Amino acid sequence: MDLFRHTNATFMLLTGTSAKVASNRLGHSTINITMDLYSHVLKDMNEDAADRLNVVIYK
Known about the structure:
Blueprint: H1 2-14, H2 19-26, H3 31-57
Helix pairs in contact: 1-2, 1-3, 2-3
């Protein structure tokens, strides 16, 4: 069951669902719990955003 929960959380964050909404849907008592558990997903998203911005700027 934890695999599905983790997959759901990861997909929500990767598809742009706000961390607050994801936290609420996962039943976490605070957004900090969500951020602590799934911050690795956001790191990857930040790197992707930086790469995309570099393409636009240095095109």
